[in-house]
């Protein structure tokens, strides 16, 4: 009798596993359902913060890893905003999170996203670069490597009212660092990015003088390491933009992070913070209508990714 019960349980488990996998895999081309005329800035886009960290190894895993899915798995789950942080090391750009090597190069990351776009031409994605080390040389090399790996026709030209039709099959790059004079850069650079804070006065600026207002919230830690106080402040900052953005001007862009941590070293607490904030966001989305902008997250679950996508459809 015991053996029969175990067999039945295994059959039930195997029955549901393919359904769970298929649900995530279906998000490989969720943008196909978007209208061509919708402005990209009004699309709710699930994203990841420090997207390349799935490969971080012990002993830095606890305080530097913010993702468990690879970049390809993130794409299949529905992520379309990727935060990549190249560091110049040994003449090569490698993805880092602070001092932690993520064991993937910037070139490898670009090739993964390029292939996903080739396989899913209805989609687009946004990549934000932020140098993790190597000075201005690393910043300039980042721009050069993008242009050498990604064909020109896969690079989105920025404008405030960029539409889904303009962006399909392309990558829009947003750079937190400004390249040297004379170095071409695809996409836009950020101006007035709020460090550990929120702002409705930042801007996106392209090399061709196109620009747009950027609302950005990146309140990522609390100086006193009081978890409850930080989480309250984090949600208040997140909610402030969430609630105001649907009624904002149609040309405004929004990057609203759920990511954050408290503590330092081995006492760094990322997962518990993300568990709390991600649940609050999921609960909010159950009764929310309208665009919410770009949402970079730590450890996003499939349910939350799906909920963000559903606000578009």
What's this entry about, in short?
The chain has 313 residues and is α/β, with parallel strands linked by helices. The protein is 35% helix and 20% strand.
Rg result: 20 Å
Strand order of the largest sheet: 11-10-9-8-7-6-2-1-12
Instruction: Output the CATH homologous superfamily.
Output: Phosphatidylinositol (PI) phosphodiesterase
Unreliable sequence segments: 1-24
Count of helical stretches: 9
Helix proportion: 25-40%
CATH class designation: Alpha Beta
Strand content: 15-25%
CATH topology name, in short, is: TIM Barrel
Integer count of domains: 1
- Label the structural class: alpha/beta
* Principal-axes shape call: globular
Name of the CATH architecture? Alpha-Beta Barrel
The number of distinct β-strands equals 12
Average pLDDT taken over every residue: 92
**The biggest beta sheet, please?**
9 strands, mixed
What is the terminal separation in angstroms?
48 Å
SSE order:
HEHHEEEEHEHHEEEEHEHEH
Give me some keywords for this one:
TIM Barrel; alpha/beta; 313 residues; three-stranded antiparallel beta sheet
Write a structural description.
The protein has 313 residues and is α/β, with parallel strands linked by helices. It has one domain (40-310): Phosphatidylinositol (PI) phosphodiesterase (TIM Barrel), CATH 3.20.20. The chain is built from nine helices and twelve strands. It has helices at 2-25, 61-64, 71-77, 106-119, 135-149, 164-167, 227-244, 271-285, 302-310, and strands at residues 45-48, 81-84, 86-89, 92-97, 100-105, 125-129, 171-175, 188-191, 198-206, 211-217, 253-256, 294-297. The strands form two sheets. The protein has a nine-stranded mixed beta sheet. Strands 3-4-5 form a three-stranded antiparallel beta sheet. The termini are far apart. Residues 1-24 have low confidence and may be disordered.
């Amino acid at each position: 009798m015991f053996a029969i019960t175990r067999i039945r349980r295994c059959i039930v488990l195997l029955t549901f596993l393919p359904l769970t996998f298929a649900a995530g895999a279906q998000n490989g081309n969720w943008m196909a359902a978007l209208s061509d005329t919708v402005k990209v800035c009004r699309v709710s886009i699930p994203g990841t913060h420090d997207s390349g960290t799935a490969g971080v190894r012990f002993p830095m895993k606890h305080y530097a890893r913010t993702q468990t899915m690879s970049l390809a798995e993130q794409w299949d789950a529905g992520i379309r905003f990727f935060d990549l942080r190249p560091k110049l090391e040994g003449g090569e750009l490698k993805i880092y999170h602070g001092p932690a090597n993520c064991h993937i190069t910037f070139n490898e990351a670009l090739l993964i996203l390029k292939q996903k776009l080739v396989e899913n031409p209805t989609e687009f994605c946004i990549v934000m670069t932020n140098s993790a080390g190597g000075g201005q040389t690393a910043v300039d090399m980042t721009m050069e490597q993008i242009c050498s790996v990604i064909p020109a026709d896969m690079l989105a030209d920025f404008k405030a009212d960029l539409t889904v039709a303009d962006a399909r099959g392309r990558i829009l790059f947003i750079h937190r660092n400004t390249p040297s004079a004379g170095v071409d850069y695809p996409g836009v650079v950020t101006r007035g990015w709020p460090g550990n804070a929120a702002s409705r006065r930042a801007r996106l600026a392209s090399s061709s003088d196109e620009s747009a207002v950027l609302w950005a919230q990146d309140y990522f830690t609390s100086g006193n390491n009081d978890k409850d106080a930080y989480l309250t402040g984090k949600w208040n900052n997140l909610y402030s933009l969430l609630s105001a953005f649907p009624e904002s001007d149609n040309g405004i862009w929004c990057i609203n992070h759920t990511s954050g941590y408290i503590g330092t070293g081995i006492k760094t607490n990322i997962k518990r913070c993300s568990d709390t904030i991600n649940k609050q966001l999921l609960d909010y989305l159950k009764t929310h209508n309208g665009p919410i902008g770009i949402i970079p997250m730590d450890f996003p679950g499939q349910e939350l990714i799906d909920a963000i996508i559903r606000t578009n459809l």
